[in-house]
Amino acid sequence: MNADRPFHIVLIEPEIPPNTGNIARLCAATGTHLHLVGKLGFSIDDKHLKRAGLDYWPHVQVQRWNSLEELNSTYPDGRFWYTSKKAARGYTAVDYLPGDFLVFGKETKGLPESLLKENAGCTIRIPIFNDAVRSLNLSTAAGIILYEALRQTGTLNT
Question: What's the predicted TM-score (pTM) here?
């Protein structure tokens, strides 16, 4: 883990408490910062959110933001990777750097089309090989991409 430049997981308007709780646990395990942006589909006090995060919440750096613009302006030099099943580039085709931001959209709609178009060069996807499957679970997707970033930066060799 690179304590000086941790990775960041950004959830835009997450809707399902257990997904956010599971991602919080992932963040606690890896020293990754968690950013919750916009209107949440649940209360931070939700029992399902807390249950999914177990007793790891004190070990997670969580920040709330009203908007992605607010987050971006706080980290003007941040490298943001936007996830979408519509992206052309696979998540393994990116050279991740410590401190990168991995951005995920809400479970039912993903990230807004306008955001993806504005950031077309920074969009990534996880391949899905069955057309009957629309998407992966949010916490599964976050884990897949974060661990690839950790692998690339040598963190998994410690």
Answer: 0.92
